[in-house]
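Protein modeling request. Please complete all fields; requests missing the sequence field cannot be processed.
Requester role: graduate student
Desired output: 3D structure, token encoding
Chains: 1
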Amino acid sequence: MKTLTIRQLPDDVHDALRIKAAANGRSMEEEVRQLLADATMERKKPDLGPLRALREKFRKSDAFDGLTAAEAVREMRNEDIAATDAKLARIEADWAAAREKKNPAQ
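Delivered output (106 residues):
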């Protein structure tokens, strides 16, 4: 193993490292070692298996027959918005009914 010395480390950086190390239950040395390892390790490529499976399922589905993927996503978002709007309307109606029950019009 090699040794690394860091000179002229600003006090605020040192303090932040000390706090971060304590929060992670490590010594400062262990914390810095982990930070350096995380920063320099080769990033793994994401697992695209689930995304590919979803794409195949979409291609084989006739639910969005004739739509592009972007159009299908827009359609699903619009359905979500409509469902949210309906839920919000029910909540507002319930709230108004509860308020009327608490303070009936005279």
